[in-house]
Amino acid sequence: MPSKKPPKPVVKNRKKPTGPAALMDDGQAALAALRPRLDRVPVSSLQPPRFDIEKAATFALAVAQKVNGKALRARFDSLPSAEFDARHLDDLATIARATLHAAQAVQRSEASATEARVPWALAKEAGALRDRLLRLCEYYFADDETISAELRDIRRGLGYLDLASDLDRLAALLHAQRDTLSRDPHLYRKTDAADASRLAAELRAALGESGPSSPKKDAAARDTLRRCLCLLQDSYSEVAAAARFLLRHDPAVAHFPSLFGAVRQDAARAKKPSPKADDKPGGPSGGTPTPPPVK
What we know:
The protein has eleven helices and no strands. By secondary structure, it is mainly α. Helix 2 packs antiparallel against helix 4 (about 85-115) and helix 2 runs parallel beside helix 10 (about 215-245).
């Protein structure tokens, strides 16, 4: 009598991760899929980021979902292939997810490289001073495009070395605009410029800036991020240009600015800060009195 075949093992479906874990999995997969293309990006095309990359990638991801809607995607597909490569529509979401993942990898790399060397008390004091001085300067120079541009650039700093540079730049601005800023009764302190310079020097000493360069892991993470950004700008620019043509008679065209323009529009929505007597680091409108987030 033939023996019965053993029953097939029951394999339970594993639940897919959700939330941040799912986003990380998606980002890792997107980065792995793009790796051959990333490696082919010419070094001459790589540029340091000049805007908030995470905001730009998040915006691009939302655009990717919009343009791949059934009706709008059909209009894109009607364009001649010689004029528009529809693969940009397929690639945009993948590139945006990879860019977000790469940006977060830079954050983790820089945090692990510096947290052991920068005393918590120093980081807390330096971050709080930077936050207060930015609010002070942004309030008084909101209508000065030159100074506002520098303040926006300071806010885009990455990690503690940039924090040291930010404090030096703010100290220089305090000296140059002392007559205006010194009149503020709430956010200005007589010792602010000296404190900013002192804390910048202490941060550099803690990080050993005169010693070896950044770890290879940190450099590799930054390189990957810049390569992702290059692909993101290329694909998004192609999609946005085509969208502006297709929707040239439609108010929806306003949703397709450049990535830099999208980030600036987001920043412009923020209300003009208004100093108050209780404005202190960590207070109601004082921001977070912790080391600055690595963006």
